[in-house]
């Protein structure tokens, strides 16, 4: 199996090791890319209806539009 390892604030890599994380992050990557990015934290029960993504997030700066909302 594979488990994710956080490299930077929003960059993850997959390692071929036993699964060790808490399964709380949904990751994605571009078709030809190698960087895995979090889509968002998993929605908590009882409202697991949507994932929300901020498109203004910059590595090491956070959201450049919404700040810490």
Automatic annotation (TrEMBL):
<protein>
    <submittedName>
        <fullName>Helicase with zinc finger 2, transcriptional coactivator</fullName>
    </submittedName>
</protein>
<keyword id="KW-0347">Helicase</keyword>
<keyword id="KW-0378">Hydrolase</keyword>
<keyword id="KW-0547">Nucleotide-binding</keyword>
<dbReference type="GO" id="GO:0004386">
    <property type="term" value="F:helicase activity"/>
</dbReference>
<keyword id="KW-0067">ATP-binding</keyword>
């Amino acid at each position: 199996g594979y488990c994710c390892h956080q490299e930077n604030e929003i960059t993850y890599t997959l390692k071929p090791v036993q699964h060790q994380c808490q399964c709380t992050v949904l990751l994605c990557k571009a078709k030809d890319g190698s960087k895995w990015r979090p889509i968002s934290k998993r929605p908590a029960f009882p409202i697991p209806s949507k994932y929300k993504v901020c498109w203004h997030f910059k590595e090491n700066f956070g959201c450049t539009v919404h700040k810490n909302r």
